[in-house]
Amino acid sequence: MAVKAYKKAHSFYDIYERKSGLKDVTHYCPGCGHGVLHKLIAEALDDFNVRDHTVLISPVGCSVFAYYYFKVGNIQCAHGRAPAVATGIKRVLPHSIVISYQGDGDLAAIGGNNILQAANRGENITVFFVNNAIYGMTGGQMAPTTLVGQKTTTTPYGRNAANEGMPMRISELIAQLDEPVYVERVAITDAKHIMKTRAAVRKALKNQIENKGFSLVEVLSTCPSGWKMTPVQAMHWMEENMFKVFPLGVFKDVSKDMETRETIPAVFTTENIREKLSIPSEEEIKVDIPKVEEKYENPRMIMAGFGGQGVLMLGVGMAQAGMQAGYNVSWIPSYGPEMRGGTANCHVNLSRQRVGSPLISKPTVLIAMNLPSLGKFEESVTPGGLIIYDSSLINRAPKRDDVEVLAIPATQMADTLGNTRIANMIILGAYIGYTGVLKKETVFDALPSFIKRKNLIDLNVKAIEKGIELVQRVNAPA
Ligand SMILES: Cc1ncc(C[n+]2csc(CCOP(=O)(O)OP(=O)(O)O)c2C)c(N)n1
Ligand code: SF4
Question: Which residues contact 352 (CB under 8 A, 6 or more apart)?
Answer without folding.
Answer: 289, 297, 298, 327, 328
